Amino acid sequence: MFNANRAILVAAGILAILVSVLVIGTRLDAGPSALSENYGPPTRNPLPGTGGVDPEPDAAMNQEIGELQVLSGHGPEQAKNAFGAVLASLPFTPHLPQNLTKGMVIYHVAGNLEGTNRVASFDATYIKQTSAGRIDLHTFQKQENIPQNANPEAQLNWAEVKTMSIGSKEWVYHLLIFPQPDGTKLRVHHISRTFEDGIYVSFDIKGGDPAEGLVLLEQSAADTK
User: Fold this and answer.
1) Domain limits at 52?
2) Confidence band (pLDDT; 50, 70, 90) for 46?
3) CB under 8 Å to 174, separation ≥6 — which residues?
4) Does 83 reside within a domain?
5) Is residue 1 included in any domain, yes or no?
6) H or E stretch including 157?
7) What is the pLDDT of residues 115-171, one digit of tens each?
8) Is 176 inside a domain boundary?
9) What is the pTM of this model?
10) In sequence order, which ranges of the chain are alpha helices (DSSP H)?
11) Number of domain units in the chain
């Protein structure tokens, strides 16, 4: 679906991130044992359009993408252990929530260097188990501006698009709705903006109660430094 041409990948950056939400969303109900828990050098390059997330860890390596995942950790323990090393591997400081809601823990972390220009990106997922199901708070950050547009195919899943004021900052908000095979709909809140230091930052949240998820997303963004 995606080719390895860097120019197309950058031009469709926002599409790539929104599609990655859908890919990861299909694993929403998977427990920790359903994902590999490897910490260290990767066995393959991430698929294009995934923002550094490897949704198919057993897929064949794609040597044409030009993206090198330098360090990653899956699962609560491995992600926690890898977190500091991932941050140290990046040429920029990610913008992270300072006070996560009680019970939310890091579940995935990855640092990546992409292409000959070595554009860096950071990816992390935090989870919380609730009576309404697991909540996934995900952030993707990149040392490069990403256009705020997408092709018509991606826009089919856009239920709402608006500018949202969170604290003193303006974010672009997308409500994404993805029909599921069982007839239900996966609702994903997604916000993004480029910080003053030039780092593109996006957060999305899914699972649990959608209304509570939006509140948690806003709280996390307001608390991001």
Assistant:
1) 6-222
2) very low
3) 18, 158, 160, 161, 189, 190, 191
4) yes
5) no
6) none
7) 666 678 999 999 998 887 899 999 999 987 776 666 677 778 888 999 999 988 999
8) yes
9) 0.69
10) 6-11, 13-25, 76-89, 152-155, 210-222
11) 1
